[in-house]
Design goal:
This protein is α/β, with parallel strands linked by helices. The protein has 2 domains: about 90 residues, 3-Layer(aba) Sandwich (Udp-n-acetylmuramoylalanyl-d-glutamate--2,6- Diaminopimelate Ligase, Chain: A, domain 1); about 150 residues, UDP N-Acetylglucosamine Acyltransferase, domain 1 (3 Solenoid). About 10% of the residues lie in helices and about 25% in strands. The chain is built from 4 helices and 39 strands. It has a 12-stranded mixed β-sheet with strand order 7-10-13-16-19-24-27-30-33-36-38-39. A 10-stranded parallel β-sheet has the order 8-11-14-17-20-25-28-31-34-37, with no helix packed on it. A hairpin with a 2-residue loop joins strand 21 and strand 22. The relative contact order is 0.06. The model has no long low-confidence stretch (mean pLDDT about 95).
Length: about 350
């Protein structure tokens, strides 16, 4: 793991140092760990992890020097490997990755090809890359990094520690702290708002903005339209995958997870902790309750109650969906005779 052409390994570390970083008990064995690897690829000086009991066969065959495991799997770590017992191997693995491959520090400065309006406010600790454009009255917070070719429109505000990747464009938006926008993201453009007339379509004014909460991450080539009569809001901690369309006036709560190719029509409301599978679509003005789960390719036409899991198009509760599937299978097997 971690091709040196792209990732800088800060190791090696002793097992004791790794355990300290993970906040767990250090094993008695003395071992120097040079890097991270999957169970099947790890060598005697690698750290690996077991995230699921379904992969126990790979655990038995691993050559890893140390393995992050839950307590109930520690006895199954093979001879020659050391078990590091943790409460949650996935969380421990993320911390280990952050130890060995830390995020590069921001290098303060402005590239000579950047174009910055005279009245923009750019903090001295920010890193502004080649061919970046920053508009009038824009504000760039402390330790922000803006990569090549990004465009920050007039009046846009970036909070502290934002990471704006290459060729992102932002207009009519206010971003909180630690927001990450991956390459090609478009924030704040006009929404799909118009009314038909006898002479064609008449564009309606889009007078809202986009508000992104702290720790929001938005994947490559996703678009977030600004509001028409109210703001488009994405709550703190929400993660949005690549190639997602967020329509005007959508309001997304905290810590939602939205997979690729999802489409959210105008004025949808998602409460906190909603998850949406890939290629699902939501009709306009739909309200999804907290902790609801929407399956891949679902077509949501009406409101969803909190905590409900839905599948299918039109979307329906998961039990009803599978009941209908089972009924159709019985009909097919019986040659269409429902008796």
């Amino acid at each position: 793991m971690g091709d040196p052409r792209f990732f800088v390994n800060t190791g090696p570390y002793t097992l004791a140092a790794v355990a300290q970083a993970l906040g767990c008990k250090a094993p008695c064995r003395e071992l120097v760990v040079t890097g991270l690897a999957g169970l099947e690829n790890a060598g005697p000086h690698h750290l690996s992890f077991l995230g699921s009991k379904r992969l126990a066969a790979k655990l038995h065959e691993t050559r890893a020097g140390a393995v992050l495991v839950r307590e109930d799997m520690a006895s199954r770590v093979p001879m020659g490997s050391t078990a590091i017992v943790v409460e949650n191997p996935f969380i421990a693995w993320a911390k280990a990755a952050a130890l060995f491959y830390s995020v590069p520090e921001v290098v303060a400065g402005v590239h000579p090809t950047a174009v910055i309006a005279h009245d923009a406010v750019v903090d001295a600790t920010a890193q502004i890359g080649p061919n970046v454009v920053i508009g009038s009255h824009a504000e760039i917070g402390q330790r922000c990094r803006i990569d090549a070719g990004a465009i920050i429109g007039d009046g846009v505000v970036l909070g502290t520690d934002c990471r704006i990747h290459a060729h992102v464009s932002i207009s009519h938006a206010v971003l909180g702290a630690r927001v990450t926008l991956f390459p090609g993201v478009r924030i704040g453009q006009e929404g799909f708002g118009f009314t038909p007339t006898e002479y064609g379509f008449l564009t309606l004014p889009q007078l809202g903005i986009v508000v992104l909460g702290d720790d929001v991450e938005i994947g490559a080539n996703t678009t977030v339209d600004r509001g028409a009569m109210s703001d488009t809001v994405i709550g703190a901690g929400t993660r949005i995958d690549n190639l997602v369309q967020v329509g005007h006036g959508v309001r997304i709560g905290r810590c939602c997870a939205i997979s690729g190719h999802v489409g959210l029509s105008g004025s949808c409301v998602l409460d906190d902790y909603v998850t949406i599978g890939g290629q699902a679509g939501l009709a306009d003005h739909v309200h999804v309750g907290a902790r609801a789960q929407i399956g891949a390719k679902a077509g949501v036409m009406s409101n969803i109650a909190p905590g409900t899991t839905v599948l299918g198009s039109p979307a329906q509760p998961v039990r009803e969906f599978f009941k209908e599937v089972a009924t159709l299978r019985r009909l097919v097997r019986s040659g269409g005779n429902s008796k």
